[in-house]
Design brief:
By secondary structure, the protein is an all-alpha fold. The chain is built from 14 helices and no strands.
């Protein structure tokens, strides 16, 4: 590989030339290119709607109530992802593998089994959580009790939505995977919140969580109905095979990886909640909502190529797989760099939309965006490792970066507040990116780091 080929400074290798090359080369297939473009378009729409939803929430609730809502919402997100047991990621791998190897009946069994497991488990967790919450009511601040109860009601809804997203991606149904959770739900949150306030509901975190539950339920039911209808003709009628133990043992490391990813993503807010007031949590949460836009490109590309990676791995086409890893890294990093610059340029006025106080979080936004850009430098390495059976190694890398994250959060937040939280998060993202690159080199014999890839088209044919 031509190390350093992306650091040259001749006239044909500037950022605009790179983007032209990306547009010309694509991701290696019309279907993949189309899926990535659809996913990116949906993500852009979702980013605008999500941002608008949070602005409306912050303006309507005020910083303190918005801080309470943000803190509880983090726990909803964590619970929903964990309750899917990693079966959402496993679906992308197994369904694609079974379809590509003529085992449609086994794919159908996986679909039914995973929905039953996630639905049952998430409902049981929500019920148990409600009992614990009731028994501990005297020890929970009153302002948090009702929002937390409503958050538990959201848990099965979000677990099922996460699972359905993975199922739809396995069939390359990009619109079905992303539109209900990221466009429909966000739109309904805005509409339902405005309706609730018009109906004289109090502008509190409890009202906001009730709105989120109603919007999530409506979007998820619509997604489930459409998915089940499409599924009838999507798979063959081969003899079914049930490998529940294998599916769960494969999904478990993915779930644990998700757990550590959630800690990486949200431990800053959780630890902040232990040391600072809801108003300060709200400022930081607003910065994270803006910085998360940096991940739009990575989200779009990986959702388009993950199932293709699994298929290439199952059929043993290593040359095409390596090419796809390299192309996905380029398609992730260079557009992400542009998004990062846009977030940096517009960050202050966008934070002001939440309220004048929120502009104090602008330095936090810069730190978080830098960390996310460092993570994008390794492209789709995380998904490549998971799709090719190296999920345990990827899990260990995530665990290491999570430990770094927690140590730094508890060490820095008491002294530096929201700035310490941002530094801890960005540092752990950098550590994770380095770990992914080392694993990619050792386990797959190639590089995923943008600065060490061969030039576009060089050693990438076939």
């Amino acid at each position: 590989m031509a190390s350093g080929s992306h650091t040259a400074s001749n006239g044909d290798d500037g950022p605009f030339a790179r983007l032209r090359k990306l547009a010309a080369d694509g991701l290696g297939g019309a279907d993949i290119n189309r899926s990535a473009i659809i996913a990116l378009a949906i993500r852009i729409a979702a980013a605008g709607l999500g941002f608008a939803a949070h602005v409306v929430l912050a303006r309507a609730l005020g910083a303190s109530e918005y801080g309470i809502y943000s803190y509880v919402w983090v726990w909803v997100t964590i619970g929903g992802f964990l309750a899917s047991l990693g079966l959402s990621e496993a679906a992308v791998r197994f369904i694609a593998e079974y379809r590509d190897t003529g085992r449609g009946g086994t794919a159908r069994s996986f679909v039914k089994t995973s929905i039953a497991i996630v639905g049952t488990l998430s409902s049981a967790i929500a019920a148990a959580g409600a009992v614990v919450l009731y028994l501990a009511a005297d020890h929970i601040p009153q302002a948090y009790f009702i929002p937390a109860l409503l958050a538990l009601a959201c848990l099965p809804v979000f677990a099922l939505q996460d699972l359905l997203e993975g199922h739809a991606l396995a069939f390359s149904w990009t619109g079905l995977a992303h539109v209900p959770p990221y466009v429909v739900r966000q739109t309904l949150i805005i509409l339902f919140l405005l309706a609730a306030l018009t109906a004289a509901f109090p502008p509190t975190a409890a009202t906001a969580m009730g709105v989120v539950f109603a919007a999530g339920l409506a979007a998820t039911l619509a997604q489930l109905i459409i998915y089940l209808r499409r599924l009838r003709s999507a798979l063959g009628h081969e003899a079914p095979g049930r490998h529940t133990r294998h599916w769960l043992t494969t999904a478990f490391p993915m779930m644990m990886t998700n757990a550590f990813q959630l800690v990486l993503t949200f431990s800053d807010i959780i630890v902040l909640g232990l040391f600072v007031d809801p108003h300060t949590v709200a400022l930081y949460f607003a910065a994270t909502r803006l910085s998360s836009q940096v991940t739009a490109v990575q989200f779009s590309v990986t959702s388009a190529v993950a199932q293709r990676m699994a298929g290439l791995g199952a059929t043993g086409n290593r040359q095409a797989l390596t090419s796809l890893i390299h192309r996905s890294t380029r398609w992730i990093f260079w557009p992400t760099l542009g998004v990062t610059l846009g977030v940096v340029a517009l960050g202050w006025p966008l934070l002001w939309l939440f309220g004048p106080d929120f502009t104090a979080a602008y330095p936090v936004l810069l730190i978080l965006a830098a960390g996310l850009l460092a993570r994008a430098a390794t492209g789709g390495a995380e998904d490549a490792l998971k799709m090719l059976g190296h999920e345990r190694s990827e899990f260990r890398a995530k665990a290491l970066s999570t430990i770094i994250n927690l140590v730094l959060n508890f060490g820095l937040i008491p002294w530096f507040g929201i700035y310490g939280a941002a530094i801890a998060t960005a540092t752990s993202m950098l550590a994770y990116a380095v770990s992914l690159e080392l694993l990619t080199r050792r386990l797959m014999g190639t590089s995923s780091f943008i600065a060490t890839l061969p030039g576009a088209g060089e050693a990438e044919k076939g």
